[in-house]
Design a protein that fits this description.
leucine-rich repeat, signal, 14 helices, Leucine-rich repeat, LRR (right-handed beta-alpha superhelix), twelve-stranded parallel β-sheet, Leu-rich_rpt, Leu-rich_rpt_typical-subtyp
């Protein structure tokens, strides 16, 4: 419905007590006549207007026309009112004297909303201000008028500071939620423990710290305790579990804290009403033991149990035996432990309501087998990262027809994929990656599982054409087929895809040209990976708004397209691309990585390269670039890795390279250590809720699609004589400059010694002259330094001994002289190959002793050989003699006409002789060859 409240139509329902008009497009603007009609609903007690679009007259209208209201829900209905409302605008609420329950969640209010509501509605019993953009610390005045309030939900705001002693003002509180704020400090033990009526307490995902107090046992009515996502420490056994009332506690979540030590799960044995337990550790120092004492029997029947990353039964690795007595489980999460044994299929048999089973990253082995009965309730199974093997049972799709998530990646499964997977018509996520599956992908999978959002088949042995006419997976957001043996071309059936976050078909045997529509299948910020195939032809212009493009190691030709629309990462290594880097590409200020190595690109580096202000990795090696390296390259201050090797760059090395970071980067400016917005999430049905005073839900149906950046970005860089791959976060810290195999001349700039964070520097195979700079001792982080195959002279600076991380040092084939630095620190590991080709170097590890070299350089006059001539004296005397001889001959010819004429006749005779003796026979021979 749109427009104002349909008051006139509703006036006919005079006995109406409950009205739900949520999630429409209702607005303000009632006429006096309509307002009169609304007043006829005198018996209306419960009004739900959530999800509409009302203005600042809402409270005035409702207060005047519906004074009998007891419950009002205006959640997400005032979200356009980002201004702070005054008391005047809330004045109408004071007429709602019977109002007990008010939901204003999802709107935008200032912190004064608390004082306003407290003043207008002092008798309020339930208030929800969840996600209302309330910020700042709480004060005693904010809560002073809520002494009758029983339920308060202020989660997902921006509140900070301490909650003590203000929480004591809520003396009648039964349920309090302050989750997802920025509160800090110690647990409010004394103030909280005075709230004797408290049944539910949720301070999850704040920044509380310290040890949990024993006084919690004074709160005898506590049913729900959620302190997850904080920084609490201590031993669980002594600080918490023994304090909880075993006759009331139903829900406990201690996840994502810093608890440590041994905790015996049998402490819960007598908690007869316990239904939900979640303990997910973040520090791996917590050890949960379920088998001590042996044979204990629980009084509870759990519905949800999550013991994640908590060294569960560390000594034995056995799955908890008390689970044999559990028959109401709906969710089980034992991920990231070291449990072993066969797959516990009996969990599904004993708990027919089981919906979620997560055994990720354990050591289960054997076959993944389910009993043939239909498991119609299970919707998510994750057994990834185990040692399961064998083939998938043929009828798996018929056994679990309602499965929405199936993740069996990183196991040892093999054989063909059963066609019954096509019977999982509700499947959203299928991850079979890193196994040994083979054969063709069943037609039933790509034609019937039309709800698939994530399909991951990477690192298997699948083969054949997958993009056939049967391919109908139009809902896909992530497709990973890399590292298989798929063949065929990019069929037009893919052109129906529109919202792809990731399209990865790399490392296969696919061929053909890349169609123009390929860029339309990825959404803005998506990732397109097609490397290591046999694609040919030109790169199309349709690659727009893509975060990462990887077309490396194909047979693509032609120029770099000038229409690439602001990608952040371009990987085109190992193709047959020609031409220069187009000027249009320099308009991309978002570019972080450019790798066009091993192509046939040419031209010069344009000064416009400085517009790549966010560039971190520049790899141009193995092309035909020429000209001087422009000083504008030094404006790329965020560069960590630069490879200009194996080109034809000439001129001198710019003196400004020290202005580039080369690894010296702030932690706030990391580019590869974070997961970029190449991730998303989606819901698959209702959340798993737990009935209580506060609306609680655990998003077990929520699947977070996360493609960490470090999985996608991988760069090879030559250092320490080998090409190594660096990927992910290490790219932020790896740094190197490779200018080798060019035609660079001049001296080595001393400013390079200021690159204190650089790990690799390669200037080899150039025409550099002069000395090795003394300031190279400032390369404090250097691991590989290669200056070989140049014309450097002078001595190796002894101060280089200070470089404690240098594992590779090469100055071979230069004109260096003098003593090699003492074999101390890292220099004690370098062999003579690091110095060979320098005739006048001496000292260990070389065989030449320095006394021998000095003797050769400065022998006594009596010991000199007849052929040992000073080169300077030789060339000087030769030049003087030549000039004198030439001058004498010229003078004689000028003075004496007879000898001058004789000289000219001699020259003429030599010319005629040469013509008839040499040129004429050659001309005859050439004519004969042409006739044949």
């Amino acid at each position: 419905m749109e427009g104002p409240l349909p008051a006139q139509e509703l006036s006919a329902f005079e006995n109406l007590e409950r009205l739900d008009l949520s999630d429409n497009r209702l607005t303000d603007g009632l006429t006096p006549k309509e307002l009169h009609g609304l007043s006829k609903l005198s018996k209306l007690k419960h009004l739900i207007l959530r999800g509409n679009n009302f203005g600042n007259q809402t409270f005035k209208v409702l207060g005047a026309q519906l004074p009998a209201l007891e419950s009002l829900n205006l959640g997400s209905s005032l979200y356009h009112m980002e201004v702070h409302l005054s008391i005047k605008e809330f004045h109408g609420l004071s007429k709602l004297s019977k109002l007990k329950h008010l939901d204003l969640s999802g709107n935008y209010f200032g912190k004064q909303i608390l004082r306003v509501l407290g003043a207008q509605l002092p008798a309020l019993k339930s208030l929800s201000l969840f996600d209302s953009r309330i910020e700042g610390p709480l004060s005693i005045k904010d809560l002073a008028n809520f002494s009758r309030l029983e339920i308060l939900d202020m989660g997902a705001n921006r509140l900070n500071g301490s909650i003590s002693p203000y929480i004591e003002a809520l003396s009648s509180a039964k349920a309090i939620s302050l989750s997802y704020n920025n509160f800090n400090g110690d647990f409010p033990s004394q103030d909280l423990c005075r709230l004797k009526k408290l049944e539910e307490f949720d301070i999850s995902y704040n920044d509380f710290e310290g040890i949990l107090p024993q006084c919690i046992n004074n709160i005898s009515s506590l049913r729900v305790l959620d302190i997850s996502g904080n920084r609490f420490i201590g031993n669980l056994s002594s600080s918490l579990v023994a304090s909880l009332n075993p006759t009331t506690i139903e829900y406990i979540d201690l996840s994502h804290n810093l608890f440590e030590g041994l905790f015996s799960f049998s402490s819960f044995a007598n908690h007869s009403k316990l239904k939900v337990v979640r303990i997910m550790s973040d520090n791996s120092k917590l050890v949960i033991e379920t088998e001590n004492p042996m044979g204990w029997t629980p009084l509870f029947q759990l519905t949800a149990l999550a013991l994640q990353n908590c060294n569960l039964n560390k000594l034995t690795g056995n799955i908890p035996k008390f689970l044999f007595d559990q028959h109401r489980l709906e969710e089980v999460d034992f991920s990231h432990n070291k449990l072993k044994g066969n797959f516990p299929f009996w969990l599904l048999e004993n708990n027919t309501s089981l919906r979620l089973l997560n055994l990720r990253n354990n050591s289960f082995e054997g076959q993944f087998y389910l009993q043939p009965e239909h498991h119609i309730n299970v919707y998510s199974i994750d057994v990834s990262g185990n040692h399961l093997d064998g083939r998938l049972q043929e009828n798996i799709g018929k056994i679990t027809p309602n499965l929405r998530v199936l993740n069996i990646s990183r196991n040892h499964f093999e054989g063909d994929l059963p066609s019954s997977i096509g019977d999982m018509s509700s499947l959203n996520v299928l991850d079979l990656s890193f196994n040994r599956f083979s054969g063709k992908v069943p037609t039933e999978l790509v034609s019937k599982c039309t709800t698939l959002i994530v399909l991951n088949l990477q690192n298997n042995n699948f083969q054949g054409e997958i993009f056939s006419k049967h391919f109908k997976l139009s809902a896909l957001m992530m497709l990973q087929l890399n590292s298989n043996q798929f063949t065929g071309t990019l069929s037009s059936v893919l052109s129906t895809l529109r919202e792809m976050y990731l399209f990865d078909i790399g490392n296969n045997s696919m061929s053909g040209t890349i169609p123009n529509w390929i860029g339309n299948i990825t959404m803005s910020g998506g990732t397109l990976v097609m490397n290591n195939n046999f694609f040919e032809g030109h790169i199309p212009c349709g690659l727009h708004s893509t975060f990462l493009i990887d077309l490396s190691h194909n047979s693509l030709s032609g120029p770099l397209p000038s229409c690439l629309d602001a990608p952040s990462i371009i990987l085109l290594k190992g193709n047959k691309l020609t031409g220069s880097i187009p000027k249009a590409l320099f308009n991309s200020s978002s570019l972080m990585t450019l790798d066009v190595r091993e192509n046939n690109l040419s031209g010069t580096l344009l000064v416009e390269i400085s517009t790549f202000s966010n560039l971190r990795i520049l790899l141009l090696g193995g092309n035909n670039f020429s000209g001087m390296i422009p000083i504008q390259v030094c404006l790329l201050k965020k560069i960590g890795i630069m490879d200009l090797s194996r080109n034809s760059f000439s001129g001198t090395i710019p003196h400004c390279f020290h202005n580039i970071s080369f690894g010296k980067i702030n932690t706030t400016d990391l580019a590869f250590s974070q997961s970029y917005d190449t991730s998303s999430g989606f819901y698959m049905g209702e959340t798993s809720s737990y009935a209580c005073l506060l609306v609680r839900s655990h998003d077990s149906n929520y699947v977070n699609i996360v493609m960490p950046f470090d999985i996608l970005v991988e760069v090879e860089f030559v250092t320490k004589y080998r090409s190594s791959s660096y990927k992910g976060g290490i790219l932020d810290y790896m740094s190197g400059l490779d200018l080798s195999c060019n035609k660079l001349t001049g001296g080595i700039p001393t400013e390079l010694g200021q690159l204190s964070s650089i790990h690799s520097l390669n200037l080899s195979h150039n025409q550099l002259r002069g000395l090795i700079p003394e300031k190279f001792s400032g390369l404090a982080s250097i691991e590989s330094l290669d200056l070989s195959h140049n014309s450097l002279s002078g001595e190796i600076p002894s101060t280089l001994i200070k470089l404690n991380f240098m594992g590779i040092f090469n100055v071979a084939y230069n004109n260096l002289s003098g003593k090699v630095p003492d074999m101390k620190n890292q220099f004690g590991t370098f062999e003579k190959s690091s110095y060979e080709g320098n005739r006048f170097l001496c000292g260990p590890p070389l065989e030449n002793g320095c006394s021998t070299i000095a003797k050769k350089l400065n022998p006594k006059a009596s010991e000199r050989k007849w052929y040992e001539v000073d080169p300077t004296v030789f060339f000087a005397s030769f030049s003087v003699t030549y000039i004198i001889f030439f001058s004498m001959v010229a003078s004689i010819l000028y003075i004496n006409p007879y000898w001058r004429q004789m000289c000219f006749n001699l020259i003429e005779d030599i010319m005629y002789w040469s013509y008839f003796t040499i040129l004429t026979p050659l001309k005859r021979l050439s004519n004969r060859l042409c006739r044949h």
